[in-house]
Amino acid sequence: MRHGFLAVSLLALGACTTLTGSNIAVSRTGDNPAPAIAAQSGDADDVAIGQREHPRIIAAYGGVYSDRPAEIMVARIVGRLLAAANQPNAQFQVTILDSSEVNAFALPGGYVYVTRGLLALASDTSELAAVLAHEIAHVTLRHARARTDRTRTTQIVDRVISSVFGGDTSTDATANRTRQSMAAFGQNQELEADREGIKFAGKAGYDPQAAARFLGVMSRFASFSAGEAGGGEGFLSSHPSTPARIQKALEVARTMFGQAEMGETDRDGYLAAISGLTFGDSPAQGSIVGRRFIHTASKFTFTVPEGYTLQSSQGAVVGVAGDGEAVRFDSADVQANVKLDDYLRSGWIAGLKADTVKALSFNGIEMASGVAQTDQWFFRVSVMRLDGQVYRFIFAAKSDSPRFAQGAEATLKSFRRAEAADMGQVRKVAVRIVTAKAGDTADSLARQMAGLSRGSELFYIINDLYPGDRVTAGARYKVVALQ
What we know:
The protein is α+β, with helices and mostly antiparallel strands. The chain has helices at 44-60, 68-84, 116-121, 125-140, 143-151, 153-161, 169-176, 178-183, 187-203, 210-229, 235-238, 243-257, 267-274, 340-344, 402-414, 420-423, 442-446, 455-462, and strands spanning 16-18, 24-27, 92-97, 104-107, 111-115, 287-289, 292-295, 300-303, 308-313, 316-321, 325-332, 352-362, 365-373, 378-386, 389-397, 416-417, 429-435, 476-482.
């Protein structure tokens, strides 16, 4: 279903605020554009690459996530890791991305990224330190520059950002893999970064066995996500995790630092820092309530037909029906003087039947729709302009039918401005920290998340527990709850 279904829209976001000394900056929304990062001799090209791609990365991942306790914690961990890596004067910019994906990666020039999804999955400072140390190792080992030279990052990124719908399957496939391509390293580089990262984390005083432990947790979460959404994108897509790699990480930790568990974990401090962290889709990027999508920032809503299951995916909202139908909703940059019916005919959608294009208006909103067909798919395409922004619906099915046509038209007619009652249906889902009482078990705590889809199963994963496990009275655990 991904063929011909890709678009990436950009937002102008980004900046940094220095938190701990002069060598670490943490991106924050609303500040001035990020300043140049001072680099070691000979790294000017690396810095230029990082500065150029930084705002694009931020836009592609939903913006910067601002959370002061989490920012301070991340900055402190990075400072300790840089000292352990003998890079006390190196300049790094760490960005927490407003994405539910479990991911972390680095760009040339000292740009390191971690998603709030990864922060929610980790359970202590040593696990986060293991991931950050791994990414810092990629930078200090110059893997990012080597990868950039090999894959020509500029061409890949520019291709993705300017990608439009069309019949070029190679373009669509490349664009769909962009996030993974930008973060992908070779197997030898991954193992080398594992080893160096474990060394950095251990020398910094963190539990060196956390890397192996957290790789296992991420593997469980990837499997969970694949079962829930048909595919788990994120850290493990570009940092493959296998039992052999986990075992290797454990062996490296024990060889370097001994068999006994050692080093800081600071579970309580970590959990306090992520309490209240947004979990899943960000309300700022729109919320899914059953078959409805409500965008509180742009103030619009729509409803898809019965049988469709909605989810957010790479800057868009996609819905899949069990009978082989799908819908994609996203935005596009269209000049204000371009009529919507002319935009439909402009060539961005493959197989468009120009004689089917017609201008429409529902709920006081300018719209246009048309039909397209390729060898394998039948499309009903609609565009609408609200407050200067153009949005698009693309319904796809193997063949046309009255029911398919009616569903696409009903969805289009449901697109309207959101009212106060609509906004009131949006609920934030966030991480909440609970303290186990005497007699509690993993199963009893997991029941606190029973109201969420597969919530109990998720509880075990985010706390690295299994059904039937005992919990410690007085210890703190994560639950995900509506607020």
